[in-house]
Amino acid sequence: VGSSSLLTCPPNSNITMVAWKINPKIGGPCTLAYRPDKNKTHTTNCSDSMNWKFRTEQELALEIRRVGIAHEGNYTCEVAGKEGNFHKRYRLTVLVPPRLMLYCDGHGNPICEAAAGKPPAQISWVPEGNATHKEEGHDNGTVTVLSRFTICSTNMINATCIVSHPSGKQSKSIAC
């Protein structure tokens, strides 16, 4: 989320027309079309964050700037040329890194929260111990994972929460 993405079409030296057909999970379909013989583009129902990226005359791509959850969906590039028609399909899935918060509850137990991640984060603890996990889904498709670590020993000084997610790993330590 937040970065740019570049989706490429099949390269073809004798292109007569190229079209991107986009079916996002949220919102209606959109189309971007290009005719090289007239050097003309046409866009229907697409957001301003999506546009052509002309790398070479034979290699056309779709650039999505500031990728967000709303961009998730199916993307198909259709190329018409003298050698025939070709297409390439993409399924765009957006990763949202969770925000890590670590605090102590009223009983002196550490609470680790991986807020608003997509997909849901995995939480583990060092040292290993008894933990309960709870997930809360949000309307935008993100999930908050809450993990309560129960301290069985009174001589434990620090607990470290480790949050694993496809976007990366994070950790924080706390003494309650």
Automatic annotation (TrEMBL):
Pfam families: C2-set_2, V-set. It is found in: Membrane. InterPro entries: CD200R (IPR040012), CD80_C2-set (IPR013162), Ig-like_dom (IPR007110), Ig-like_dom_sf (IPR036179), Ig-like_fold (IPR013783), Ig_V-set (IPR013106). Residues 1-93, 112-175 form the Ig-like domain. GO terms for biological process: regulation of neuroinflammatory response. GO terms for molecular function: signaling receptor activity. Coiled coil: none annotated. Keywords: Disulfide bond, Glycoprotein, Membrane, Receptor, Transmembrane, Transmembrane helix. It is a single-pass membrane protein. GO terms for cellular component: external side of plasma membrane. PANTHER family: CELL SURFACE GLYCOPROTEIN CD200 RECEPTOR 2, CELL SURFACE GLYCOPROTEIN OX2 RECEPTOR PRECURSOR. Belongs to the CD200R family. This is MOR1A protein. The gene is Cd200r1a_0.
